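Q: Predict the bound structure with zinc ion.
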Amino acid sequence: MYTETEGIILRQTKTLNGRRMITLFSKKYGKIGAGTSLSERGKNRSSLAIRPFCRGRYELFKNRDTYNINGAETVESYYSIGEDVDKYMEAARILELTDAMLGEDQPQPALYDLLCQYLSMMADRRTGFSTLGTAYELKALKILGSGVNVRRCARCGGEKTDKGCVLSVTEGGLVCGGCAKEQDGSDPLIFTAGDDILSVIGYINDHPLKSLEKLVLQPSVEGRLRTFLGAYISYHLGIDRLKSDSLLPQ
Ligand SMILES: [Zn+2]
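A: Predicted complex:
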């Protein structure tokens, strides 16, 4: 069966005889694995479209469960991501995370659109690269049905008005000070939550990614938020450390 779809290359590996295996986040079919004999060398439209950091249109041939990419053309190139090493590492981390978030052959159009927006904003961004990644993670969690709730206490439903609020990984977000007092305090999946972190999460949750162009978090707030998100993503999505995490400055 011949078909075509727009998509983003998540990963590619070389195999025998000059062929490549491509992991494509396609708009129509979700994440699929596809082989191709197209070469990424040269400057023609198909060679650009099978490199990472590109949104392309792909002609596919499906034979039972396997896809082959017969043709490709670039729709939007985010090549400038590769011109800055910090930007590149952060965007590579987001591609790896997205790859791990997706099951095969399950369309995720909202997450696809979010990733397109993220890459496009990242290509233009000059600073605060990791802030955009943090915002992407929060939004992706929401799309996948595991969003971090900071509006109301997960236990009593009260609004966050008191001191001593915490963020509970297992309960999906905010637990108010009153409720948090009642537990023994040794749960490693409970994180202290200052007003700063709660308002950052609330702000990101309530605004589209596009409007967060100028948001750059203070390193201390971002560091705590990322530690929490790491534990949260591991618990809710079963994704532990990524390969690219070890390459990022700690
Ligand atoms: Zn409560």
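A: Residues 153, 155-156, 158, 176, 178-179 surround zinc ion (CB under 6 Å).
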